[in-house]
Amino acid sequence: MSERTLPPGVIGLHALPSDHHDGPWDSMIVPPGTKERLLGAALLVLRQGRRLTGLSGAPHGLIMLAGPPGTGKTTLAQGLAQAAALKVAERGATTLVEVDPHAFPSDMLGESQRAVSKLFLDTLPELAARRPHTVVLIDEVEALAVRRSSASFETNPVDVHRATDAVLSGLDQLRARCPNLVLVATTNFVDAVDEAVLSRADLVMSTTLPGDEVIEQIVASSLAELAGQWPALGPLAGDADLRAELAKGLRGLDGRRVRKTILAALTLRTEVALDPNLLTAEDLRRATQPED
């Protein structure tokens, strides 16, 4: 299906597993147990969702990733879809649906509610019917499910409430109609997400800024990637003392900024930008020093 024929609000539609989606899951450096917990929550629904529908506390198939920007939420969600698809591939392919929540809000009273309802009641069930397993990714879910208790009465609060109501109803109906569907939602502001939506999540996992140990691992990974392209950088990538030193200068940054800072070391001298094999430890130290 081309982008021109994608349903309203859907910005990506993929069949998994796919070689094009390899990489993010393995490259993510997160605290121990994070990936296992996420994969377990997804697989339980993808494989056992239909059997669990009769339970009083049946899963909604909703996984919520909450944390500051740059902590890898979207990359984790995309990687999770591929990792889960690989695990269930013997029983059929998985459809990955990427939804843009910002495509739905409207200044016209009731339009948001109707658009959200159509997504959950028509579009997602239709897409889920194509393959045995479905994973839906919604970034910045707070745009769809605003916390009603704190919604501003200056910005069309009736429609805000109705849209959130539509999300809640949609989640309940998806559970009944598509028990093998997993919905992974991300948010930078978990306090902005409606409480009732959070209560339906099977797993709410917080992503945090990396600690010193994780930062050092990210530095090691970044340098190893550079050395893969420019072999002369191998000794820098293998210098454990240098990695530890650089990690201290990067304390407090998110994983994305850590990787970009290491990459920025290639830009400090024009000769290095032209030939990254000339990168030195001093270049890396300069790039990672806090600015005054």
Written description of the protein model:
This is AAA family ATPase. It comes from Amycolatopsis rhabdoformis. InterPro entries: AAA+_ATPase (IPR003593), ATPase_AAA_core (IPR003959), ATPase_AAA_CS (IPR003960), P-loop_NTPase (IPR027417), Pch2-like (IPR044539). Belongs to the AAA ATPase family. Keywords: ATP-binding, Nucleotide-binding. With 292 residues, the protein is of the alpha/beta class. The chain folds into two domains: 3-206, P-loop containing nucleotide triphosphate hydrolases (Rossmann fold), CATH 3.40.50; 212-288, no CATH class. 47% of the residues lie in helices and 12% in strands. It contains twelve helices and six strands. The chain has helices spanning 24-27, 34-52, 73-87, 111-128, 157-177, 195-200, 212-229, 234-237, 240-249, 255-264, 270-274, 281-288, and strands spanning 10-16, 62-66, 94-99, 133-138, 181-187, 203-206. It has a six-stranded mixed sheet with strand order 1-3-4-5-2-6, sandwiched between helices. Helix 2 packs across helix 3 and helix 7 (212-229) packs across helix 9. It is elongated. The N and C termini lie far apart (51 Å).
